[in-house]
Amino acid sequence: MAVRAFEGKDHAAAYWQFRVTPQELIKNLSLKRFQTPKQFSLALDVGCGSGQGTKLLAPYFTKVVGTDISPAQLEMASANSNPPNVSYRQCPAEELPFASGEVDLVTAMTAAHWFDRPRFLQEADRVLRPGGCMALLSYTLDMELEYRDISKALTDVCKEVF
What we know:
This is Si:ch211-93g23.2. Residues 44-135 form the Methyltransferase type domain. One of its GO terms (molecular function) is S-adenosylmethionine-dependent methyltransferase activity. By secondary structure, this protein is α/β, with parallel strands linked by helices. The chain has a single domain (38-161), classed as Rossmann fold (3-Layer(aba) Sandwich). The chain has helices spanning 9-18, 23-29, 71-79, 117-127, 151-161; strands at residues 40-46, 61-68, 86-90, 103-109, 128-137. The chain has a 5-stranded parallel β-sheet with strand order 3-2-1-4-5. Helix 1 crosses helix 3 (71-79). The protein is globular.
C-alpha cells in the first residue's frame, strides 16, 4: 500500500508553497516526440500533489490528469489556476482509473518513492499504450525499480540518466 502523506489541508498548503516546481525536469522530459503541441492524447501525473508538475504537461497533450491519494492535495491543485485540459482524480498509484492502453505518458514527479513500486509499475504498464512512455522524476538515486525480469535494467537506466 502506498504511504499516505501530505493529506491534511495544512500539509497541502505547505507543499504548494514550498515544493520545488519541476520546471527544469519537465523541460528535460520534453523529448522530441513530445515537442509538437497536443500531438498526444493523454498524460497521467501520478502522485501529483498540488499539481505544480501536472499543469506543466498541458501544452503537450490534449488531456492531462493528475492523480493523488490525498483529497487535500487535490483540493489545493484544483483551487489554483489550471489550463482547461488539466483535471484531477483521487486514487492510489497502484489502482489507476484508466483503461488498458489508454495513456500516452505516465509521470510520477518526486512521488514514486511513496508507492508500492512493483504494483505501481504493473499498473503503469497496464494503462500505457504500446509505445507509450513512463517518466519517474526524482531528486535522489536511492531507488531500485522492481518489475518482471527487467528490474536491474530499469534501475541501471535510472542511474545512468541521473
